[in-house]
Amino acid sequence: MRLPSRAVFAAVFVACAGLIGLAMYMQHELGLEPCPMCILQRYAFMAVALVALVAAIHGPGKLGVRIYGGLALLFALAGAGTSIRHSYLQRFPDGSLSCGADLDFLINNFSLAQALPKMFAGTGECSKVQWRMLGLSIPEWALVWYLIFAVVAIWLIVRKPS
């Protein structure tokens, strides 16, 4: 049995929405404040979710599936890169990092070209592990999900149309 691409995109959307909902629950109910890199990872999940939602509604043909799959792959890889950097900061914290400026301050006071490098440099907040499940921190779990979404996107791109 062949899975329709529309159903696959819908499943990716539901998974992303669930992950964003979990992030909001952890922030507002458990009191885990997100660092700038956490926010960037949320944006990447939202971008994957938006692409998947549009694709699920559109129900594209084979070229459209490849285009939507490519966009989802691009956003998943961007999120994975942020997660890798965040995980690295948590595994190997730099003692010189302080709890620097939050994302709103960076965006409001610097151009995007100046703010992005500062976000990826990380802060003391980014190196603090506030939560673990099965030995993995939040950015490590985000990386697992980004890799799942990347594999699904690649599968959608390369599978033969029926």
Provide a compact summary of the structure.
By secondary structure, the chain is an all-alpha fold.
Largest β-sheet summary = 2 strands, antiparallel
Number of helices: 7
SS-based structural class? Answer: mainly alpha
* CATH top-level class: Mainly Alpha
InterPro entries: DiS_bond_form_DsbB/BdbC, Disulphide_bond_form_DsbB, DsbB, DsbB-like_sf
GO cellular component, one term: plasma membrane
Function: Required for disulfide bond formation in some periplasmic proteins. Acts by oxidizing the DsbA protein.
Periplasmic side: 26-43
Q: How would you describe what is shown here?
A:
The protein has 7 helices and 2 strands; from the N terminus they run H-H-H-H-H-H-E-E-H. By secondary structure, the chain is mainly alpha-helical. It has a single domain, classed as Bromodomain-like, CATH 1.20.1550. It has a two-stranded antiparallel ribbon. Strand 1 and strand 2 form a beta hairpin. The longest helix is centred in the middle third of the chain and has 30 residues. It is globular, with a radius of gyration of 17 Å. 33% of the residues are buried. One of its GO terms (biological process) is protein folding. Belongs to the DsbB family. One of its GO terms (molecular function) is protein-disulfide reductase activity.
